């Protein structure tokens, strides 16, 4: 079974600042996808960013970017210029035909 | 494009009662998933359908949980009888294909179940 570990239960960041969420995973597969999902209090799970294991270039989506270190099995998410609307639970997920989620990191953006 | 629809949004029941949740996936999505998300944890896959066939139900407690996807569109998840530990949010998701690791899943708003 694949395991995904998010070691930071909670993170707090000042508006306009940058926050980085960590994620590590364990797999013997060579081809897979990694995702970061955002779950605001409304509970709607929203895809933030995805990364294919074969691609060395780190994915970027506007203010969200990842640092993918395949050898270290690390997949961190950086949120730049944090906004109040970024307050949510963030889940790292690993997919090799089945999506496995980490326990999540609660991010609170302070005004 | 309409998203994944789920109902009800909230449900409160007594233990040993039965409950059913409904999910309508995005039109054209062949794959449907049910997840259980206990407070403070990430979602855990309960069952995955490809059209109306079950692909993976290895983590479904089959003594009390059942799910069906008749006609390969809507799906219902049932719990009978409910236990206190079933209190959770039940998320439904859908995707175009499942036989690929590139598998963007679109999630519904979930049903929050409280078992008293």
Describe this structure in words.
- The complex is a heterodimer of chains A (111) and B (116).
- Chain A has 111 residues and is mainly β.
- Chain A has strands spanning 3-5, 10-14, 19-21, 24-26, 33-39, 46-52, 60-61, 64-69, 74-79, 88-95, 99-101, 105-110.
- In chain A, the strands form three sheets. In chain A, strands 2, 5, 6, 10, 11 and 12 form a six-stranded mixed sheet that branches. A four-stranded antiparallel sheet of chain A has the order 3-9-8-7, with no helix packed on it. A two-stranded antiparallel ribbon of chain A has the order 1-4.
- In chain A, a hairpin with a 4-residue loop joins strand 8 and strand 9 (74-79).
- The mean pLDDT of chain A is 93.
- Chain B has 116 residues and is an all-beta fold.
- Chain B contains no helices and eleven strands.
- In chain B, a hairpin with a 6-residue loop joins strand 7 and strand 8.
- The model of chain B has no long low-confidence stretch (mean pLDDT 92).
- Classes of the chains: A mainly beta (111), B mainly beta (116).
- The interface between A and B is medium-sized, with 24 and 25 residues.
Computed over alpha carbons, the radius of gyration of chain A is 13 Å
Instruction: Summarize the helix and strand pattern of chain A as letters.
Output: EEEEEEEEEEEE
CA-based gyration radius of chain B: 13 Å
How many helix segments of chain B? Answer: 0
- Spans of chain B of at least 5 consecutive residues whose pLDDT stays below 50 are none
- Element pattern of chain B in H and E: EEEEEEEEEEE
Strand content of chain A: over 45%
Which structural class should the secondary elements of chain B be placed in? mainly beta
Shape of chain B: globular
* Overall pLDDT score of chain A: 93
Overall number of strands of chain A: 12
| Arithmetic mean of pLDDT of chain B | 92
Distance between the termini of chain B: 37 Å
Oligomer: heterodimer
By secondary-structure content and strand pairing, the structural class of chain A works out as mainly beta
Range of helix content of chain B? under 10%
Give the beta-strand count of chain B: 11
Q: What distance separates the N and C termini of chain A?
A: 40 Å
Sheet with most strands of chain A: 6 strands, mixed
Shape of chain A: globular
């Amino acid at each position: 079974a694949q395991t995904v570990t998010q070691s930071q239960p909670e993170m707090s960041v000042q508006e306009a600042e940058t926050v980085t969420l960590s994620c590590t995973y364990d797999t013997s597969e060579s081809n897979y996808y990694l995702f970061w999902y955002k779950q605001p209090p409304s509970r709607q799970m929203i895809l933030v960013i995805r990364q294919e294991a074969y691609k060395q270039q780190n994915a970027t989506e506007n203010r969200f970017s990842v640092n993918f270190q395949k050898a270290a099995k690390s997949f961190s998410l950086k949120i730049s210029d944090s906004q109040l609307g970024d307050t949510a639970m963030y889940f790292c997920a690993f997919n090799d035909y089945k999506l496995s989620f980490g326990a999540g990191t609660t991010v609170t953006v302070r005004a | 494009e309409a998203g994944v629809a789920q109902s009800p949004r909230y449900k409160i029941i007594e233990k040993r009662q039965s409950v059913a949740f409904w999910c309508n996936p995005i039109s054209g999505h062949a794959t449907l998933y049910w997840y259980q998300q206990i407070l403070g944890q990430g979602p855990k896959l309960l069952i995955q359908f490809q059209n109306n066939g079950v692909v993976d139900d290895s983590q479904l407690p089959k003594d009390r949980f059942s799910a069906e996807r008749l006609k390969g569109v809507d799906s219902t998840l049932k719990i009978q009888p409910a236990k206190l530990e079933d209190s959770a949010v039940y998320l439904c998701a859908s995707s175009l294909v499942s036989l690929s690791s590139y598998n963007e899943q679109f999630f519904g708003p979930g049903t929050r179940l409280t078992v008293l």
